[in-house]
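Hi, here's the filled form for the chain we discussed.

Project: internal
Contact: R.S.
Residues: 214
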Amino acid sequence: MKQEESFSKIHDSAPLSFGEGLGERNELYPIFLKVHQLNVLIVGGGNVGLEKLSFLLKSSPKAIVEVVAPRFLPELVDLVHQHDSVKLTMKKFRKRMLKKRHLVIACTDDLEVNKKIYNLSRERYLLCNIADTPQLCDYYLGGIVTKGNVKIAISTNGKSPTTAKRLRQFFEEVIPDDINKMVENLNEYRKTLKGNFEEKVEKMNKITETLKNI
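And the returned structure, exactly as it came back:
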């Protein structure tokens, strides 16, 4: 009942017209990136830059990131000092800074600069996210729920970050904290299974069948 009430509050808080969005579909493909093995560039040292970096480090504390800007918020500097894998570069953006990158996030207060970064990134086949500009994003930074080894990513197709936030809060509340122990136990059990791949999958499906009723 508690779960139903929680979700009802989320649903009721969003004033949508009946039928709105029907027929639409989120066609984004979710992946989980090992950003501690990649090279991420964030251009922008203001509030949005701080938000993007905080979001990234909350999920991946060892992410390899360089933040470039002529100046930085003190809060952003403090955050960087807590993570050895993050570097600050107090300079204006130059296209050479895109060299050897995997992901780019542009969040300056100048839309023309952001567009330039996006176009330069596309020329180099780099995945780029332009803050608050969905049409200039190759990917979105959605809501994330983490419980040990369990991680759930939430996307609203870039249309409502607030909805993603509320859904994240909902799942954080209803998913039990001890789910990580269950995952670890199942992993150990999986290692003891004999037979071919299909047989192992069938056995794991049977033992986890009751999870649908949680």
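Let me know if anything looks off before we file it.
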